[in-house]
Recover the amino acids of this structure.
């Protein structure tokens, strides 16, 4: 196993990427905010199987957090992250400071304006996807990525990334990796660490509610309101769950629909205590 290379500056990461490209190697990028768990490792493995070189980024991106969100308390454990990346055979990690990514005088941001950022988490976190689109574009450019890997848990994010990659003619293939779940069904997330044991058990209601809706869909239910109602009814069985949203849109266009006749996303956001969790399923044939 080769030693994990750790880069903290744009210049050294660019130099490394240029060296790999000159040798004819393909580069896979796995953007993360750290606090790595098994879900992130599925991204690394997908990149490892598809590309010659894997570069992970560990960067808690300040411009995608709102003023009342959890930027300051977001878990940071870089040494542990590096151990996990090395164990997976990741070649390099880019771990810049906010000042390295957004130096004095920085003033360029990317905004996707076709409506897909106006629903789901985008509607509740103003500016969030502006921050995501900006940092991901920078990371793709810095690492000279051929492919970039994202988890389906953030399905709206994947739709946004694919949209700006297409719109800006970026030569990067965006790959979506299925949701990684704990044995209980709970989608793995860095924010799971915020919850008590009781709350983690309560949080299983998210996947359970989606499973109930999927069963109804597979039994022939196509009415969007009925599928959302089934999801809400299951969520209502858990006293600790406070629903933020239960929505169903076509995917990846994220257009409203009354009847599921094409690939669609059933997405939920739920507070368990003070922790906001998201989860989803894709109904219909996946692209």
């Amino acid at each position: 196993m080769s030693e994990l290379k750790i880069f903290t500056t744009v210049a050294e990461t660019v130099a490394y990427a240029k060296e790999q490209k000159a040798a004819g190697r393909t580069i896979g990028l796995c953007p993360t905010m750290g606090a790595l768990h098994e879900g992130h490792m599925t991204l690394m493995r997908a990149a490892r199987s598809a590309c010659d070189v894997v570069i992970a980024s560990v960067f808690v991106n300040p411009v995608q957090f709102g003023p009342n969100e959890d930027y300051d308390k977001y878990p940071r454990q870089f040494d542990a992250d590096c151990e996990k990346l090395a164990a997976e055979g990741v070649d390099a990690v880019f771990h810049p400071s906010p000042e390295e990514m957004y130096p004095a005088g920085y003033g360029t941001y990317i905004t996707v304006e076709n409506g897909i950022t106006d629903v789901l988490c985008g509607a509740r976190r103003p500016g969030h996807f502006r921050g995501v689109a900006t940092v991901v574009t920078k990371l793709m450019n810095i690492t000279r990525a051929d492919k970039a890997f994202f988890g389906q848990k953030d399905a709206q994010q994947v739709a946004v990334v694919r949209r700006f990659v297409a719109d800006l003619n970026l030569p990067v293939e965006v790959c979506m990796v299925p949701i990684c779940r704990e044995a209980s069904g709970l989608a793995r997330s860095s924010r799971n660490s915020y919850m008590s044991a009781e709350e983690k058990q309560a949080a299983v209601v998210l996947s359970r509610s989606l499973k109930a809706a999927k069963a109804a869909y597979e039994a022939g239910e196509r009415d969007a309101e009925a599928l959302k109602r089934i999801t809400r009814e299951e969520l209502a069985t858990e006293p600790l769950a406070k629903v933020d949203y239960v929505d169903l849109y076509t995917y990846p266009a994220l257009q409203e629909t009354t009847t599921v006749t094409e690939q669609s996303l059933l997405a939920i956001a739920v507070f368990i205590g003070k922790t906001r969790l998201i989860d989803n399923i894709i109904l219909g044939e996946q692209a």
Observations:
- The beta strands are 5-7, 27-32, 53-58, 92-94, 147-151, 173-177, 241-250, 264-272, 275-283.
- The domain at 190-279 is CATH 3.30.1300.10 (Pantoate--beta-alanine Ligase; Chain: A,domain 2).
- The two ends are 34 Å apart (CA to CA).
- The chain has a mean pLDDT of 96.
